[in-house]
Amino acid sequence: MKVRDGKEGKEEKKILKKVEKAEEKEVRFKQTLRALPDGVVLMSQNWEIQWLNPMAERDLQLDAVTDIGKKIHTCYPNGEFLNKVTSGDETLQTITLEGRIIEIRVISAGSKYRILVTRDVTEQKRSEDFRRDFVANVSHELRTPLTVIKGFLELAEDWPLNSQQLKHLDLMYEQVERMGALVNDLLTLSRLERDSAPAAKEPIDLTVLLTDAAVDGRFISQGHHSIVVDHIEKVNILGDIIEMKSAVTNLVSNAVRYTPQGGTIVVSSFFNDEGLVISVKDNGIGIAAEAIPRVTERFYRVDKSRSRETGGTGLGLAIVKHVLFRHQARLKILSELGKGTDFQIILPKDRVEKIV
Fold first, then answer.
1. 95, 239: one domain
2. What pTM was computed for the model?
């Protein structure tokens, strides 16, 4: 393009430079998107495909040459896929396409465009299933020998043993009990991971639930802590009684393990804007801010030595997380190092009913 001389020519040169820079940015941007491990589809508000990268072609079996300009409905008439893409829900969703498991998310990009992001998680899901099944099978196989060993140890209590032998026997029995608790927790976690469906809505008396959890905590503490039930709302929780008891008891036992002797643990409940809050608050060692996102991971320990000394399996908070997921609830953790931690179960309002 020939540029005129003079003032008008200078303006044209400026415009051309801006256009060139914009084109260079667009090329770099598209090159970056092409290199992403996730699929990206740029669509107009009426679902017309404007552009897509190679990973989106693979995940959705589209063609960047022939499908540009077409509406996604005509390119991929899969009912489940279209329902989830066009639902208006911007949360992560999972679909199955031609035997592959694909995570999708549609994001609004201003008033003119939508972005569809995809990720093939087939191998990841297979690995997770294999790990879960392996752990469950090994745990089941460990139950029988542990039961046999425990039985012989109980028989040995009647034998004429000296003080040193009795000490060894107690140590063996303690370790078998610990292994049994670990196996039970692994089986519970495997079951919860397999069953992600919403929990049943059976009425659970909150007073009974929190009082029983405090009693269990006092048994674990053996009188070394003050465990107080402060305030209980007169309501029923609508959920699975075994799972909810496990969740609350795990929080109380966790507080016992991470609170020095003489410390206080307060179990209470109250309502906020989200729903019912069940609080288990201690004045123990606390959790560092950077560790809080990881405490619900399996086998993660804030203080490894302390948890082992007090018999923790490292699975309690992971179990709590999965139980709450099945109850559409969440776990909120407020903590300060050296001052203590407040674990809060927040249940939605439709999981609570007042006792008349």
1. no
2. 0.65
